Amino acid sequence: MSETTNILVVGIGGQGVMTATEILAEAAIALGHDVKKTEVAGMAQRGGVVSSHLRFGTRVLSPQITPGAAHLLLGFEAAEGMRWRHMLRPDGVALMNTGRLVPPVVDLGLYAYPDDPVAAVRAAGTRVLAFDATAIARELGDLRLGNTVMLGVISDHLPFPTDILEDCILRRFATKKPALVELNRRAFAAGRAAAKQAAQAEVVPA
Amino acid sequence: MAAAVREVAQPVPAQSRRLMSGNEAVARAVWEAGVRVAAGYPGTPATEMLEVISTYPDLYAEWSVNEKVSLEVALGAAMAGSRAFCAMKHVGMNVAADALMTMTLTGVAGGLVIAVADDVGLSSSQNEQDSRYWGRFAHLPVFEPADSQEAHDYTLAAFELSERFAVPVILRLTTRICHVKGIVTVGERSAHRAGGFTKDAARWVMVPGNAGRRLPLMFEREDKLRVEAELSPLNKLEPGSDRRVGFVTSGPAYMHVRESFPNAPVLKLGFSYPVPFAKVRELTALCEQLVVVEEVEPLIETELKAQGVAVSGKDLLPRLGELAPNILQSAIARLLGEPAPEAAAGAAPLPVFPRPPTMCVACPHLGVYYTLSQLRNVTIAGDIGCYTLGFGHPWNALDTCISMGASMGVALGLDKGRGESDKDKKIVAVIGDSTFLHMGMQGLLDIVYNRGNVTVLLLDNRAVGMTGGQNNPGNGRDIHGAEAPRVDFAQLVKALGVREERVHVLNPYELPTLFKTLRAETKIAEPSVIITNQPCVLIKDYRAHQPFTVIEDKCTGCGNCVDVGCPAIHVTRRARVTKASGKEVDLSFVRIESAACTGCGLCVQPCAPDAIVHAEQGTSAINLIIKN
């Protein structure tokens, strides 16, 4: 099963994690792959943890990605990226939004939010590309574009051409909300640029 | 969104390959099978089956008030010769079991398939159950698909078997079927006419004499079904080349087995009850030892052992929770005395705070739990729904949660069984609108009839909130969003015998009234009902208001607003000060995420220094938590 690609998309309920994974799945199907997508989303709509598993390849059997088997980790929220780091293969890449969503248990002083989730993931030996997708979306004028920014980020790390993924995103809006096509095109491009910039900023090990 | 009037979808043409969840695949097959009546009650992970079915043309679909009623509706339709379908989550079958245990005697005329979805791993349930037991208990056949395509195909096969043997068929699903999306090739709808109801008291009227004559027929049917299972193409023997370990498996566990041991001999049981013993014996001839891999109880394992077949199972594998390839690989490595596979060793997770589900920004339950958390000397019996979250921080204002409607009976029991130390305790029960209609009404009647001293909080938010805002008789909309007769909760509880003076309908955002009423009613030694009347923030009935913000200079850090528990309130800074009295006080200075705030005003009311004011006009109300 070595030809199966495993992508883990994580965040919190309401961020669009499941929709993003669904679009990635559509792109993989468009290329003729077998696909399975599954979530661990306990009461996800209520701001809890969501992790969405996507596996594609010639034939996919088990829908679950097991710890240490993910090729890519797409983190919609900083601490959530950190929470799921152990799911990555040793050579896997974490694509982490540095934007933070602080839960009530932290506001109540019951737990602390990690000081620097990106640094913690790097310290654990994982390659990280970090960017502020929330800020990019805000600059584009709508926080809801964060989802498309994240897909732009992952697009150059997939084993298929970028334009297939972009088509899958824009097709969704073309039918329902044509006015949003151009905005999402820009969000996707901004995500790609952010990932490239993050890659350039990486410290090259001596 | 569930509240909207749904359009009837144009079903995709046959032969299309679609990415579908198991629930969507079952729904499609129900339509293809020519089903005329489908019923269910929402519950994770089963909810989407009925939701999707309701979008298909040429069939009748309903949200029933509970699972027992839904099964009875489906049975009635099958008695009338229609093909019928019923879907529920695992605990729903506990409610429906009374009907199930007798319909196995009558059997059916039109095909009847009952989909039961087990929440293996408890993603959103109060317990974990293995619904395959119902097959053994009620002597009914059980089908277990392993992915979306099989969920589709087995549903069609289940209708065929149901009609051929005049027997209801249990389609056993788990979360990893219901909520996994895979590629499905779909087919055409075949029309099925209702054969019509044929009067036959010996068959349909289950009085002792008639039922007694049906019992031997049920056992005969079971023997025939075992023969059928032996021949069924749903039970597949895959010989394999690695003879060291062979596997008997069913449901999604098959996928983990096949992925982990591509060359092992495997018997995949799609028609898993009655167990085809001869087929298992064929497998034993192909391998040195046999392991049964099943979620979650050792049902097949126990039956094989009773037949004298040497097997391993739960001695190697966990008895609870989901299986996965890594769990299986380690277990089999131990069995074979091999080192544990590398991937299973894995890296340890980094420590990160837990992120439990929270109530939504501006949720009407926030004010209720804030108020309950201020009451002293109360025991609060809770129920199933979003409001169960009231047990958590910051409210800690819910003391029990058992099953649908249990808050009523448990509260009465807490009242009648109180110990010396509880003699002055007030007993409060909290229940949602749909849960009350599902199974709470009877409990309230019991409280009234037996002169209990319970204050009931009936939280009417006009939706089945936790499962995604489905309609119910409390909001006057049917499964399609069309207008339907609406129950009047105040009239209903009065009709059950609660005195008119003891019934209050309140706006839960008005904290002083809520507090006063609750305090007064808990002091009165008779049943009272306080009904809250504001909608769930996730449904269309909810109206957002101008958001609030905190004037930083005015915030004194009292933290009162934090105790409301709204996720839009964030602590920016903490401090500890020593008061003149020498007492140390912790301060929490706050800000409001105005972009998430919808202006419910709950936090404004306890704010001591009036530091919370309306945010400037033009702040875009993009909500991070509320699903668009």
CATH fold group of chain A: Pyruvate-ferredoxin Oxidoreductase, domain 3
Q: Which sequence of strands runs across the widest sheet of chain A? A: 2-3-1-4-5-6
CATH class of chain A: Alpha Beta
CATH architecture of the largest domain in chain B: 3-Layer(aba) Sandwich
Give the CA-based shape of chain B: globular
Strand content of the residues of chain B, in percent?
15-25%
CATH class value of the largest domain in chain B: Alpha Beta
The fourth-level CATH homologous superfamily of the largest domain in chain B is Thiamin diphosphate (ThDP)-binding fold, Pyr/PP domains
CATH architecture of chain A: 3-Layer(aba) Sandwich
- Rounded mean pLDDT of chain A is 92
Strand order of the largest sheet of chain B: 3-2-4-5-7-6-12
Annotated CATH topology of the largest domain in chain B: Rossmann fold
Spans where pLDDT lies below 50 across 5 or more residues of chain B: 618-628
Tally of contiguous helical segments of chain A: 8
Mind explaining what this structure looks like?
The complex is a heterodimer of chains A (206) and B (628). The N and C termini of chain A lie far apart (34 Å). A six-stranded mixed sheet of chain A has the order 2-3-1-4-5-6, sandwiched between helices. Chain A contains eight helices and six strands. Chain A has helices at 17-30, 78-83, 104-107, 117-123, 133-140, 146-155, 162-176, 181-201, and strands spanning 5-12, 34-40, 49-57, 70-75, 88-97, 127-131. Chain A has a single domain, classed as Pyruvate-ferredoxin oxidoreductase, PFOR, domain III (Pyruvate-ferredoxin Oxidoreductase, domain 3). Chain A has 206 residues and is of the alpha/beta class. Chain B is an alpha/beta fold. Chain B folds into four domains: 17-231, Thiamin diphosphate (ThDP)-binding fold, Pyr/PP domains (Rossmann fold), CATH 3.40.50.970; 235-341, Rossmann fold (3-Layer(aba) Sandwich); 364-532, Rossmann fold (3-Layer(aba) Sandwich); 548-614, 2-Layer Sandwich (Alpha-Beta Plaits), CATH 3.30.70. Helix content of chain B is 32%, strand content 18%. The longest helix of chain B is centred in the middle third of the chain and has 24 residues, at 208-231. Chain B is globular. Classes of the chains: A alpha/beta (206), B alpha/beta (628).
